[in-house]
Amino acid sequence: MKTLTRNAYAKVNLALDVLRRREDGYHDVCMIMQNLSLYDTLTFTVEEADTLTITLACDKAFVPCDARNLIYKAIALMGETYHLTGHVHVELVKRIPVEAGMAGGSTDCAAAFHAMRELYGLDVSDQELMKLGVKLGADVPYCIMAKTALSEGIGEVLTEVAPLPDCFVVVAKPTISVSTKMVYENLHANELEKHPDIDGMVMALEEQSLQGITERMENVLETVTEVRYPVIAEIKACMKECGAMNSLMSGSGPTVFGIFTEKEKAEKAADAIRSRKLAKQVFVTQPYNV
Ligand code: ATP
Q1: Number of CB atoms found within 10 A of residue 186's CB
Q2: pLDDT band at residue 30 using 50, 70 and 90 as cut-offs
Q3: Residues facing residue 152 across a β-bridge
């Protein structure tokens, strides 16, 4: 029997632009992705068997533990592609908010690809895993790469950029559910009046200028989500009131994150969000840069 434990890190979008809707229904995007030190933990065990079987257990009852789970899908796809056999069992400790715009499912999926490669000793590059991963979700290639990146195409064209410098990041997930599909369906990509300055953000990252980075934080999906769910604007305002350099919705939401230079201010913001009952899931975290 072999055992392996991996952490799977959450991401936020420091900037998110949507360029156009494609004929296949996907959207061409241009985003800056950054990992945070907020992670799920996955423990894999593999026992010998004649065929491939997969079981999954999670500490949170609302996470599906069957073939709908992206961990399950990643293991099945690796099994099919590389003709693997064995009984694979995964224990998932879920800390990343679900349906939150933090790529929680995609990062677990990426961890499963990496773990399977290691457990079975496969000579497969990250590039190959990324090609397989995009079949399961647009954010999966980024999660396999797991470095600060400019993400283009539907999310599969990735260029490493300089990482977000040291700071404190408050993450708050309000208790509303936002469907990514609804957000994209209601976005009028051709009519957007403002687009984030992604080139400027890349330069600011290169210069390690937290000021330059934070003043360019923008997400065009807020035009859909913030209007429908006022709590998002309330959390952003609360973070700024408590000293955030800036705050933004991540992905299609509803999670909001704020950037702070001082831990005390970040903790004060987290307390204020909790006491005003704007969100239940609130974390003070930091960039995760490998
Ligand atoms: P993204 O930022 O990529 O849009 P998200 O935060 O919107 O992701 P997830 O947390 O990945 O969304 O979950 C979306 C759905 O995927 C959930 O409703 C859940 O049922 C399903 N799911 C599949 N695998 C997982 C997983 N490993 N962890 C959490 N949810 C999962």
Answers
A1: 13
A2: very high
A3: 30, 157
User: What are φ and ψ of residue 57, in 5° steps?
Assistant: -135, 145
11 is catalytic: yes
Which residues have C-beta within 8 Å of that of residue 124, sequence separation ≥ 6?
82, 117
Minimum CA distance residue for ligand 1 atom 1: 103
- What are the pocket residues of ligand 1 if the criterion is a CB atom closer than 6 Å to any ligand atom? 63-64, 68-71, 98-106, 108, 139, 180, 251-252
Annotated catalytic residue within 94, 139, 173, 236: 139
3-class secondary structure, 157: strand
Q: Would you say residue 116 has pLDDT above 90?
A: yes
Alpha carbon distance 169, 152 (integer Å):
24
Backbone angles phi, psi at 224, to 5 degrees: -95, -50
Question: Does the pLDDT value for residue 188 go beyond 90?
Answer: no
Question: What is the pTM assigned to this prediction?
Answer: 0.95
Structure-block tokens of residue 213: 């980075």
**pLDDT exceeds 90 at position 189:** no
Which ligand 1 atom lies nearest to the CA of residue 137?
Answer: 3
Instruction: State the CB neighbour count (10 A cutoff) for residue 147.
Output: 16
Q: Find the mean pLDDT for residues 7-36.
A: 95
Q: Which residue in 33, 43, 32, 56 sits closest to 8, CA to CA?
A: 43
Q: Which residue has the tokens 């936020």?
A: 12
pLDDT tens string 48-96? 999 999 999 999 999 999 999 999 999 999 999 999 999 999 999 999 9
Q: Is 17 a catalytic residue?
A: no
* CA 226 – CA 233 distance, rounded (Å): 6
